[in-house]
């Protein structure tokens, strides 16, 4: 079984790959000759997962914070400072090794494209180093100097640093800029200043928004034409209308919602309103220390009200749209002629098993650009 770009389930199908791209899709009986063949033996073939929101460049441990949260303490963004301190003191070699190990873990579960952010350095030198490591280790790198205002620094002074020397330092290594527009992090005005400077520098825009309560993040993202706004746990009718009228993708982060015991993002409501939805892991040490996209897909089905097909689409094509990589030659997130041959073979006859058998190791093989990596 194969799920193709037109959202069809094709049975007894074949996919032909040439030069790292998909060259042909159709009935197996009519497949053209190929140099090598892989018999899927009735297993389901999906696009590789597109994880459009992660924070992989970090060191340190925050299990004590997790235990406190499980005991009833509410989540606050201040734990970011704990990771910042550990990350700043880690060697560049160690950080590169940690990122590589996390990427391998994600690949082993079918993820073929990964975005990751800076944001655990929070000074010019540390953010530049994180950006270099991210650019070398993943597929899309995002500047998140506006993750938290370090203690003892005037917020407006820090915003000027983010928009000036810090942005200049990371610019050669990143494609995107992000901001945590949230109480306890950055105000609407500060967030707009950061994103406006990033756009002027030629970066695409992303927003962390509406995670901890109703706020300005969603509407700011739509106003500035951000590619995505991520978290979206608290969505007002006005937010929903803005998203439905614009092109900004609403990225939901199910594993984070469970870890923070937050209200689950209203993915069902967003989809029903016609909003493009992506699912991502938000892999980070404080609120979602997992890169398992199958876990996120299963959670979206079992607890967010999505169908299996909707969840798989959000975790593949939805992520590609959120990263602006869903069109043209070499597009990702779909099985379509001309797209990258990023493929995920399940050890199951259908994608339904991802939710039907949650937590089970169902990845049989993974290809990136036609080369087998798992």
UniProtKB/TrEMBL annotation:
<feature type="binding site">
    <location>
        <position position="53"/>
    </location>
    <ligand>
        <name>Zn(2+)</name>
    </ligand>
</feature>
<dbReference type="GO" id="GO:0019556">
    <property type="term" value="P:L-histidine catabolic process to glutamate and formamide"/>
</dbReference>
<dbReference type="InterPro" id="IPR006680">
    <property type="entry name" value="Amidohydro-rel"/>
</dbReference>
<feature type="domain" description="Amidohydrolase-related">
    <location>
        <begin position="196"/>
        <end position="355"/>
    </location>
</feature>
<dbReference type="GO" id="GO:0019557">
    <property type="term" value="P:L-histidine catabolic process to glutamate and formate"/>
</dbReference>
<feature type="binding site">
    <location>
        <position position="208"/>
    </location>
    <ligand>
        <name>Fe(3+)</name>
    </ligand>
</feature>
<keyword id="KW-0369">Histidine metabolism</keyword>
<feature type="binding site">
    <location>
        <position position="55"/>
    </location>
    <ligand>
        <name>Fe(3+)</name>
    </ligand>
</feature>
<keyword id="KW-0408">Iron</keyword>
<feature type="binding site">
    <location>
        <position position="120"/>
    </location>
    <ligand>
        <name>4-imidazolone-5-propanoate</name>
    </ligand>
</feature>
<feature type="binding site">
    <location>
        <position position="287"/>
    </location>
    <ligand>
        <name>4-imidazolone-5-propanoate</name>
    </ligand>
</feature>
<feature type="binding site">
    <location>
        <position position="55"/>
    </location>
    <ligand>
        <name>Zn(2+)</name>
    </ligand>
</feature>
<dbReference type="GO" id="GO:0005737">
    <property type="term" value="C:cytoplasm"/>
</dbReference>
<keyword id="KW-0963">Cytoplasm</keyword>
<feature type="binding site">
    <location>
        <position position="282"/>
    </location>
    <ligand>
        <name>Zn(2+)</name>
    </ligand>
</feature>
<keyword id="KW-0479">Metal-binding</keyword>
<feature type="binding site">
    <location>
        <position position="62"/>
    </location>
    <ligand>
        <name>4-imidazolone-5-propanoate</name>
    </ligand>
</feature>
<dbReference type="Pfam" id="PF01979">
    <property type="entry name" value="Amidohydro_1"/>
</dbReference>
<feature type="binding site">
    <location>
        <position position="208"/>
    </location>
    <ligand>
        <name>Zn(2+)</name>
    </ligand>
</feature>
<feature type="binding site">
    <location>
        <position position="211"/>
    </location>
    <ligand>
        <name>4-imidazolone-5-propanoate</name>
    </ligand>
</feature>
<dbReference type="InterPro" id="IPR032466">
    <property type="entry name" value="Metal_Hydrolase"/>
</dbReference>
<feature type="binding site">
    <location>
        <position position="284"/>
    </location>
    <ligand>
        <name>N-formimidoyl-L-glutamate</name>
    </ligand>
</feature>
<comment type="pathway">
    <text>Amino-acid degradation; L-histidine degradation into L-glutamate; N-formimidoyl-L-glutamate from L-histidine: step 3/3.</text>
</comment>
<dbReference type="InterPro" id="IPR005920">
    <property type="entry name" value="HutI"/>
</dbReference>
<keyword id="KW-0378">Hydrolase</keyword>
<feature type="binding site">
    <location>
        <position position="120"/>
    </location>
    <ligand>
        <name>N-formimidoyl-L-glutamate</name>
    </ligand>
</feature>
<protein>
    <recommendedName>
        <fullName>Imidazolonepropionase</fullName>
        <ecNumber>3.5.2.7</ecNumber>
    </recommendedName>
</protein>
<comment type="similarity">
    <text>Belongs to the metallo-dependent hydrolases superfamily. HutI family.</text>
</comment>
<dbReference type="InterPro" id="IPR011059">
    <property type="entry name" value="Metal-dep_hydrolase_composite"/>
</dbReference>
<feature type="binding site">
    <location>
        <position position="282"/>
    </location>
    <ligand>
        <name>Fe(3+)</name>
    </ligand>
</feature>
<comment type="function">
    <text>Catalyzes the hydrolytic cleavage of the carbon-nitrogen bond in imidazolone-5-propanoate to yield N-formimidoyl-L-glutamate. It is the third step in the universal histidine degradation pathway.</text>
</comment>
<feature type="binding site">
    <location>
        <position position="53"/>
    </location>
    <ligand>
        <name>Fe(3+)</name>
    </ligand>
</feature>
<dbReference type="GO" id="GO:0008270">
    <property type="term" value="F:zinc ion binding"/>
</dbReference>
<keyword id="KW-0862">Zinc</keyword>
<feature type="binding site">
    <location>
        <position position="147"/>
    </location>
    <ligand>
        <name>4-imidazolone-5-propanoate</name>
    </ligand>
</feature>
<dbReference type="GO" id="GO:0050480">
    <property type="term" value="F:imidazolonepropionase activity"/>
</dbReference>
<feature type="binding site">
    <location>
        <position position="286"/>
    </location>
    <ligand>
        <name>N-formimidoyl-L-glutamate</name>
    </ligand>
</feature>
<dbReference type="GO" id="GO:0005506">
    <property type="term" value="F:iron ion binding"/>
</dbReference>
């Amino acid at each position: 079984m194969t799920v193709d770009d037109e959202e069809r389930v094709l049975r007894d199908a074949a996919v032909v790959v040439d030069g790292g791209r998909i060259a042909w899709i159709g009935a197996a009986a009519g497949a053209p000759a190929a140099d090598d063949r892989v018999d899927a033996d009735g297993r389901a073939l999906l696009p590789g997962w597109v994880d459009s929101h992660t924070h992989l460049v970090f060191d340190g441990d925050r299990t004590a914070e997790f235990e406190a949260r499980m005991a009833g303490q509410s989540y606050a963004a201040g734990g970011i400072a704990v990771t910042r301190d550990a990350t700043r003191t880690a060697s560049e070699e160690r950080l590169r090794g940690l990122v590589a190990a996390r990427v391998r873990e994600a690949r082993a579960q079918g993820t073929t494209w990964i975005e990751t952010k800076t944001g655990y350095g929070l000074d010019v030198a540390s953010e530049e180093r994180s950006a270099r490591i991210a650019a070398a280790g993943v597929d899309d790198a995002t500047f998140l100097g506006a993750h938290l205002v370090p203690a003892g620094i005037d917020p407006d002074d820090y915003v000027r640093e983010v928009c000036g020397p810090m942005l200049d330092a990371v610019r050669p290594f990143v494609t995107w800029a992000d901001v945590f527009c949230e109480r306890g992090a950055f105000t609407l005005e500060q967030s707009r200043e950061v994103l406006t400077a990033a756009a002027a520098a030629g970066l695409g825009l992303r927003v962390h928004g509406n995670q901890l309560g109703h706020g300005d993040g969603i509407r700011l993202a739509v106003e500035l034409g951000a590619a995505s706004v991520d978290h979206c746990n608290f969505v007002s009718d006005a937010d929903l209308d803005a998203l439905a009228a614009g092109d900004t993708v609403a990225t939901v982060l199910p594993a984070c919602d469970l870890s923070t015991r937050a209200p689950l993002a209203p993915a069902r409501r967003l989809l029903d309103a016609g909003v493009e939805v992506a699912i991502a892991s938000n892999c980070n040490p404080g609120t979602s220390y997992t890169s398992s996209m199958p876990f996120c897909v299963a959670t979206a089905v079992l607890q967010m009200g999505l169908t299996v097909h909707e969840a798989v689409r959000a975790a593949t094509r939805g992520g590609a749209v959120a990263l602006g990589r869903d069109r043209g030659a070499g597009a990702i997130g779909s099985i379509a002629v001309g797209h990258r041959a990023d493929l995920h073979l399940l050890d199951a006859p259908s994608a339904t098993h991802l939710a039907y058998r949650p937590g089970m190791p169902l990845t049989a093989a993974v290809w990136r650009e036609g080369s087998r990596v798992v």
